[in-house]
Design a protein that fits this description.
- Pathway: Protein modification; protein glycosylation.
- One of its GO terms (cellular component) is Golgi membrane.
- Keywords: Golgi apparatus, Membrane, Signal-anchor, Transferase, Transmembrane, Transmembrane helix.
- By secondary structure, the protein is α/β, with parallel strands linked by helices.
- It folds into 2 domains: 261 residues, Spore Coat Polysaccharide Biosynthesis Protein SpsA, Chain A, CATH 3.90.550; 136 residues, no CATH class.
- Helix content is 36%, strand content 15%.
- The chain contains 16 helices and 13 strands.
- The strands form 3 sheets. The protein has a 7-stranded mixed beta sheet, sandwiched between helices. A 4-stranded antiparallel beta sheet has the order 7-13-12-11.
- Strand 3, helix 4 and strand 4 form a beta-alpha-beta unit.
- Helix 4 crosses helix 15.
- The chain is globular.
Length: 491
């Protein structure tokens, strides 16, 4: 029997111990989850991903064009308020010849099918990211910056991407110096799709598709939250639905022909109101096909689909393209049921509104999940809190029409012609703010107007703008007034 020398035995024992240690570590050590590794560590630059995506999507869009005449208008749908108990029939005011209708149906189906099957149509977003997307440019830039500052004063840290149509709207000083300090960056759509390829209402869907975020909160430049919006991405209904939309005042007036083209059952007019697309939430991980179809509706919107989806109703444009795209491809969504509310001044028979107020979707979802539909009967529960304000009529740009008699709703004037608050009625809606939102908004407008480091191209006489805003602030907000609205979290 061979005898091991002490030195050799020691070596064998050490090697065996090392092997056991390695095996133990291998068995019991778990690697960190993928989310711990920076998702951008080996990522293709955003611009390259955007260009590659458009290089694939554009031919698909072109290859399934309607190739039919623009639908004929018999008349336009009037401003009919949504009624959740109506039995009225759907407006039918659009004409398409039978052959053209079949061609549009086949093009629609072909587009969806090619988008489903295309392996080269890879999403642009970085997995696991979330942020806010908007568009701005020219006179919308001051409005956007006010909204952005309202977001940051809430403590929100969500990154923001703001898209502009082309380089003519890119303001270097704002984009390179001001916005980065506020966690925002500018991107130019024409760098991706070419100049003039998309315009106006079409910008929204392409900004969302080209954004780097997987989970997107879309907010128009003149829309801002009253609370940190990231909480909406972490709760129902978004966590299970992946798409959340808010209502407009009006009926959903899509043409019966649209439902034939998209091969859907036609819903009753009472099912839901039309959409107000100043704000929505969407997951590109779960709703990429919805967004691709919305892109189709917008790309061929001016010629075909804007008419089919609204029939000339108020706000015709991109507003109906998102939710209808989801229903067409069978992806889930949640349409907030609580009615949108106008805030402004009282007038005979109603309100001269200068902003729209949208509800907390989590509170609305809790009510509808319990089969409590305030849209049918307001007595079933108290109103949910307000969550977003869309200050759209007029845009609150102090360099334009917000002061004096320049706008029909004269939001900044009292009945006697002196400076006054814009948002006084309806009192019950204003109370749902929970705090003095209007004062906070004007504080940000004042800070922007009088900050010498901020200069917008559209503000030729910034010194005069600053003086006017400071005067308005002194008259309206610097000290309390007897008619100031009351705010409470108990409403």
């Amino acid at each position: 029997m061979p005898v091991l020398r002490p030195g050799k035995l020691k070596t064998i024992i050490s090697a065996t111990g090392a092997l056991l240690l390695i095996c133990t570590v291998y068995i019991y050590w778990a690697p960190p989850p993928a989310s711990v590794v920076p998702s951008t560590a080996f990522e293709v630059p955003l611009a390259e991903r955007q260009n590659a995506f458009w290089k694939v999507l554009n031919p698909i869009l072109q290859g399934h064009a309607p190739n039919t005449p623009t639908p004929k208008r018999l008349a336009d749908v009037s401003a009919v308020h949504f009624n959740a108990t109506t039995t009225d029939s759907r407006p039918d005011l659009t004409i398409i010849e039978d052959g053209d209708l079949q061609a549009m149906e086949e093009a629609h189906a072909g587009y969806i099918e090619e988008c489903r099957k295309s392996e080269r149509l890879r999403p642009v977003h970085t997995p696991g990211t979330r942020g806010i997307v908007s568009t701005a440019g020219a006179s919308y830039f001051p409005v956007f910056l006010s909204s952005l500052r309202m977001l940051r004063r809430l403590g929100s840290t969500l990154p923001v991407e703001v898209y502009m149509k082309d380089k003519s709207e890119y303001e270097k000083q704002i984009c390179d110096e001001i916005l980065p300090d506020l966690g925002a960056r500018c991107l130019v759509l024409s760098d991706i799709v070419g100049k003039g390829a998309i315009e106006h209402y079409q910008l929204k869907i392409f900004a969302v598709l080209f954004s780097s975020f997987e989970e997107v909160i879309w907010m128009d430049a003149d829309c801002f939250p009253l609370h940190k919006p990231e909480v909406l991405l972490e709760s129902e209904p978004f966590s299970s639905k992946g798409l959340v939309t808010w209502p407009d005042f009006w009926i959903s007036s899509a043409s019966p022909l649209y439902f034939k083209i998209s091969r859907q059952e036609m819903p009753a007019l009472s099912e839901r109101a039309s959409s107000e697309a100043g704000v929505f939430l969407v997951s590109k991980k779960t709703h990429q096909l919805t967004l691709l179809l919305a892109a189709y509706y917008n790309y061929y919107g001016p010629s075909h689909y804007f008419r089919l989806l609204s029939q000339g109703a108020p706000g015709e444009g991109d507003k109906e393209t998102f939710l209808h795209a989801a229903t067409a491809v069978g992806e889930p969504f949640y349409a907030v049921s609580e009615r949108v509310q106008a805030v402004g001044h009282t007038k005979p028979g109603g309100i001269a509104g200068s902003a729209m107020v949208q509800t907390d979707p989590a509170e609305d979802y809790a009510l509808t999940s319990a089969n409590k539909w305030r849209v049918k009967d307001e007595s079933v529960a108290k109103a949910p809190h307000a969550f977003f304000i869309h200050a759209n009529y007029p845009k609150f740009n102090p360099g334009e029409k917000v002061f004096g008699m320049k706008w029909e709703t004269t939001p900044t004037l009292r009945p006697d012609g002196t400076d006054g608050r814009a948002w006084l009625a309806a009192e019950t809606t204003v109370q749902r703010f929970g705090y003095d939102v209007e004062k906070a908004y004007w504080e940000e407008i004042k800070n922007i107007s009088c900050d010498t480091a901020i200069s917008f191209r559209t503000w030729e006489r910034k010194d005069e703008i600053c003086d006017r805003v400071e005067s308005y602030w002194a008259n309206v907000f610097a000290k309390p007034h007897d008619d100031d609205p009351k705010f409470t979290d108990e409403s």
